[in-house]
Each structure stands twice: as C-alpha cells, then as structure tokens.
Amino acid sequence: xxxxVGLLAPLALFAWAPNASATxxxxxxxxxxxxxxxxxxxxxxxxQPEFLLVSRKGLSVESLPxxxxxxxxxxxxxxxxxxxxLAQLLSLIKKDLSIEIRDAARRASNEPPLDTTGIRLTxxxxxxxxxxxxxxxxxxxxxxxxxCRLWSPAARRVELLxxxxxxxxxxxxxxxxSMTQNEGTxxxxxxxxxxxHFYLYEVTVFWPDSMREETHLTTDPWSYSLSANSQxxxxxxxxxxxxxxxxxxxxxxxxxxxxxxxxTHLRDASALETTPLNQGRYRAISDSTSLFHRHLKxxxxxxxxxxxxxxxxxxxxxxxxxSDWSTAVIPGGLQRDSFTPQxxxxxxxxxxxxxxxxxxxxxxxxxxxxxxxxxxSARILEFRQMVKALDELGLGLVLxxxxxxxxxxGREPLSVLIK
Length: 419
What we know:
The protein is α+β, with helices and mostly antiparallel strands. It is built from eight helices and 22 strands. The strands form five sheets. Strands 9-8-5-6-7-3-2-10 form an eight-stranded mixed sheet. Strands 13, 14, 17, 18 and 19 form a five-stranded antiparallel sheet that branches. It has a four-stranded antiparallel sheet with strand order 11-12-16-15, with no helix packed on it. It starts with 13 loop residues before the first strand and ends in a 20-residue tail after the last strand. The model is unreliable at 1-22 (pLDDT under 50).
C-alpha cells in the first residue's frame, strides 16, 4: 500500500472542526470502491484537504489515499477507494481502520490529523457476502460429524464454545475450539455426539465505535434451534425421527386453489383455550380437541384455503419461560379517556406474554414461547405437528417472516448479525 500520502480535494475551501471524536463512526464503507464520510461543522478553514484510509496492525501503520468524487461537497463526502483484490480487501477489513483528514501543511510537518473517525463496514460486508454457501451447523452426509460455518470476514479470531446444558447457569463451556478461516468464512468439523448440545461463537473483531479490539459472544445467525430466550444455539439434525411427525414427507406444499386467507395471531387465537398446554401454543392447532382446531375445521368446510399466522419465528420481546411473565394490573371503574391502562401495560411491556412478533432475533427458529418447552428442539417438532394438522384440514399455511430489520444491534444482548 501507499505511504502516508493523499490527494488534494477538488474544493478550494471548506470548514471543519479539528480533532473530532473518533468514538462515533461517521464513515461507512458502502462498497468495495466507495466510502462515505460526514465531516463535522466548521471551526477551521482547510484549503487542500487530504483523505486517508489508515490501517494499523500492531506497530505497523499503512495508509491509502482516498479520492473525493467530483460531486462531493462538505459535509457529505463520497470517497473512491483504489482497486483492491479480494485477498487485499479481506486482509484490510481485519485491521484497525480509520479515516484521517489532513492538509498539506500538517502532512509536511507530520502533525496529528485534523479529524479522525472510525469506519462501519456494513456496506462492503454486504457486497462481499456469498449467499450461495451453506452456513450454520449441520450434520455431514458422508462422515459422522457436524460442520459449523460462520461468515465473519472482519473477525480476527473465532472460537466455538460448546455447552452440555441449555441452563443459563452453565456459563463455562465444556469445550472451546478454534475455527479456521477461508475467504471470510470460519469453519470447523466436530463429532456428531454433540447433537443436542448447545453452543456459542466467541468473535474477536476491531470495533469502530470504541476504536479498539473487542471480543463478543453470539449465537449462530443460522440456528435451527435454541435454548430459552435465544441465549444459546443448539446442534440439531432436522432429519431426526424424533423431530418429524408421522408421514411428514407427505405434507403438501402449495395449492392451486384460489386463496381464501384467514390472518391471525397464534397467541391471540388460542389464549382462551381450556387446556393450559394449548394456550398460546402451536398445540392449539395440532390438538384436534382444541377450540381453535375445531374453529379452523369449520372454516375449512366453509371454503377457507389458507391460515396466515403473524410471526412465529424467534422474536425478542416476549420471555420464553412462562414463569417469568408479568401481567398488567388495571383497576376497574376508570374513565374512558384514562391513561392508567396504558401506563400499567407499559410497566410490564417487556415481561408480559403479548407481542405480534415483528422484532426478529433468529430468522429460521420457531418461537420458543409458543412451545411447551422453550429449551431445545420441542419447538421444532410442535411447529411441524402444527403444519401437518393444517394440511390434514386441507389448509395451507402462510408464514409472516421479518427479514428487513432486527430487534437489536451492536453490542446489545440479542444482536446476532452485527457483533
């Protein structure tokens, strides 16, 4: 890479606050060849600004000149990154990265930069992703082993932590295994005896907000099963007989009939079931004696073709262990315009049993609060039993999925995709 050099910006004059804080990144690497940068408001005039992509690894410091596009204007800049090979790009994003702004005088005298900020890699990571490769942990067909694959090209180290129990008190892993990287994907093969056990990834990465290396624990974004409250991922074989209802392979996919669709929320539709095990659960559909099942049967006989369920995949706003639930206490005799009910509900909003589910955590795992046991694979079997029961009623199932946002991000506990 080039030494500490830069390119003169096309603008003659603009102004900016020197030595701005580096703790809130104002730059984003949006594609392989472009970085966007927002500069702070002015206290100092700069005639010939120079933009540098600075990378540090240990005592080694390198910099790459960035070229403002002709239409760039302060405070919003579009900076062109020189052409890099895939190997160069993958190597660069693992380092301590920042954008530095200097002028000719400071460069000549080797003074500190006028401004420094970290860089978010979200955009360039999206461009580097390969959606065709298999990810997650799945049993191999040819050997008695499980292959785990995690796509994390900016990570410096990744370790697989294996736990024998789902219990949150079992904080110490029974095994800690280092994973190897291949073009951004971290891999490891483990023995098949671990099926049913739980796991986390420990990821070490440079964090642009703190401008330092950090180590984070995270579940697997490509999980199929979890412990309660999305705390640990579970090694699972979706083909196991104990996870498939009888004649599961005969369930019909799709329908050529003109659709007549009934949209509902699983918890709402089954909250008043007389059998406690059916209340707010997948069983309310699979149990042929339940109120909801019999209601659906009557609707199917009247011409209904599909049931549309609001999100039934893992979401973060309802505790999955029912003993942790709280219920709002609303006094009677209130005026119609009273704020008391809303205030009471607000106090237990994150501990009650109600949410529509548009706050996804793991996109491919059935929601645990709808299962009889939120720890482990009961949610998979009961979800499949629900699907099969609908098929036997002649009903198709429409699943409401939420792929366009996440419940949490950054360092938050239920952040999965960005850590």
